[in-house]
TrEMBL record:
Protein's UniProt name: Lipoprotein
Cleaved signal peptide residues: 1-22
Organism lineage string: Bacteria, Pseudomonadati, Pseudomonadota, Gammaproteobacteria, Thiotrichales
Record keywords: Signal
Biased segments, Polar residues type: 44-53
Region (Disordered): 40-63
Protein origin, superkingdom: Bacteria
InterPro entries: BamE-like
């Protein structure tokens, strides 16, 4: 009788562990939580004032964004972004900038104040 009870409890424990580790529903819930957190963190500027500066940007200007550029160099070259998001863990800071123009969308990611990734998507 004791062996059957031990087997039953072990089976229940393994079943609960498998249910808790499943990715179907928990992944959707995690994505919703990340989107809500990102919406709280994002700060946007008034795009009407920035449109004249960022309207001048095209694919060639976006190609000038190089890995390792500083944040000051980037903002001097492209002007104020339409979207800015700042996150970080301990001393590691990630800043996400986005400029949207008639030509396309430029996204730039900075790690600790230096450009780590940039992408231009034409419309």
């Amino acid at each position: 009788m004791l062996n059957r009870m031990r087997l039953l409890l072990t089976s229940l424990f393994i079943s609960f562990a498998l249910i808790a580790c499943s990715n179907d529903e928990s992944q959707d819930n995690d994505n919703d939580a990340v989107e809500e957190t990102a919406a709280d963190v994002v700060s946007t500027d008034d795009t009407a004032g920035n449109m004249s500066e960022s309207a001048e940007m095209d694919a060639q200007t976006a190609d000038n964004v190089e890995r390792g550029m500083t944040e000051a160099q980037l903002l001097e070259m492209l002007g104020e972004p339409d979207l800015k998001q700042v996150t970080g863990v301990d001393s590691f800071e990630v800043i996400f900038y986005e400029w949207e123009t008639d030509e396309g969308l430029l996204t730039v990611q900075l790690h600790n104040g230096a450009v780590a990734f940039s992408q231009f998507e034409p419309k």
